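Cross-check.
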Amino acid sequence: MWWSIWWVWIVAGFLLGMLEIMVPGYIFLGFAIGAVASGILVGIGVAPASPALLVLIFAVCSLVAWLVLRRTMGVRKGQVKVWDRDINDN
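Predicted model, tokenized:
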């Protein structure tokens, strides 16, 4: 089936990467990295052919990628601006 073909995972990762370009926010980029990592694991023969285990590997890779992205490119300290007065106040 399609889940055991390595290039399907790679193409899905690139499609998710292109979707990330259209909808920025580091939401789809973690999934794209997870799909490419799953494709590489399937390609070298490390990942099993079971669809449930492949989805689990994809989910774990995506979560790790999202956490790394959040840590390196996410919210920085002092990034949130708290307004204490309104510009319309006299």
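The helical segments are 6-22, 28-44, 51-73. The chain has one domain: 2-73. Passed to J.P. for a second look.
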